Amino acid sequence: MATADFRDRLLAGLGGAWPEPCPLKPTIIETTQQEGYRIEKITYEAEADDPIPALLLVPDGVSSSSPAPGICIWHQHAGQWHL
Length: 83
What we know:
3-stranded antiparallel sheet, 1 helix, 3 strands, elongated
């Protein structure tokens, strides 16, 4: 299969072309401290004016001068947008 054909089929399966890049506009909604880490309830934008809710778990001691690796986990919503 040609690379262009694969790309076209992949994008069709995902629902169309990728959105144009935009500023993420991250916003911290709430922070909750737990034992050994904090939970930040945040939103960010993958498309302009379309905030996406997320939870960010940050181990204690992590900062810009003491970074740690990150793990991203996405899940399906099955049309259950309230989740």
